[in-house]
User: Fold this.
Amino acid sequence: MNPPTQSLAPASPASSSPDTNPVSGYSLLASTARKILEEKDAIQVLRTICEESCQVLGADRSMICRVRMGDTIEREVLQSYRLPSEYVEALESARDASHFTDRIFRDGCLEVVSEPDFDNRVLTADATRAAGHKTICLIPLIVGKEVFGVLALYHLTAYEYCLEDRQLAEALGELASLAIEKSKLVEALESRIEGQESLQRSLRQIISGRDMNEIVQAVLTESERVMATNRCSVMLPEARTGKPRLFVSKGISADFVDRVATLPEPFPIGHAYVSNSEKEEPTIIPDATADPVFGRIHLAEGHKTLAAFPLRVEGRNIGVLFYFWTSAQEIDGQKLSLGQAFADGVAVAIENARLYRESEKRSLHLELANEIARAAGSSLEPEELFRTIVQKIRQNVA
Assistant:
């Protein structure tokens, strides 16, 4: 049995536009599904879903909105169709939740509500009147088995959703969810590729360079886009005291570096890694400002989240690579892996620089020994020989 044909709703102004003919809702859904599979631009796919949702269900306006539930509610309109910009701005700035939003996130079920029952609970009275919505259909978007947000359809005249309308609306929600999930996968893949390319460029810098500061700065620069922050720093123990100190930094103020250097006790995370080589895993601090001792330093610098990655050489922790973010971050597994890969690159750069310095020092010692041996084998008088040997030593020590 063929699926029923969905005609445009005559009660809605959208259905009475002169260039709109009755179409099969299911045919439009099939067309939209093909576009999702073929279209690489996720924004264009979401725009298509917004437009065709209005065609299929006779709605006048639509939007796809990301919703984050917490102590307050955050809304981000990813795409909209014919919605006034004032309404979008008012919706995104509102922080209150409606009981409909609660139900959608709790049950993952479609809701059809009248304008006073929804907009009045979220927006101001002026914004509600200006919008003029009479019926709103809120369709949950399920991404990764969790409610990601809503596809909202707005009618400027009262519209009663029958069973078939609800089925079509749910199918549109599934297509929008599929489009968002696809875009997230593509974004993750592109990020992974970009990360690998950055790592390869860093490796070339490590292999070709000799100056440790220059190499580390290059590695940190390559990691900026991938780690989504330009604030990073390398902490190493001082040779004389063993106290961890920030040696190389990007995007960090000199005041922050000085404050860390003058702390009465070692910077705890850096000290934990340097003093314990069995500590191999990265450390994530979601809110660095909450630390009772060091939080004020991070607060003054504008830091919120920090991540620490050990610099390991031959099973030892020789230092720590820090990344700092100015807003709260969720550090996923991919970012952890890339952060540790960059930390490994920094560790290799530091070790290569150390080996290069030792090699240069060894060469100088050999050259000095050869010059002393040549002088000793010459026909110089003892006093002149002594002065020549002292001069050679001074030249090499200077």
Notes: The two ends are 94 Å apart (CA to CA).
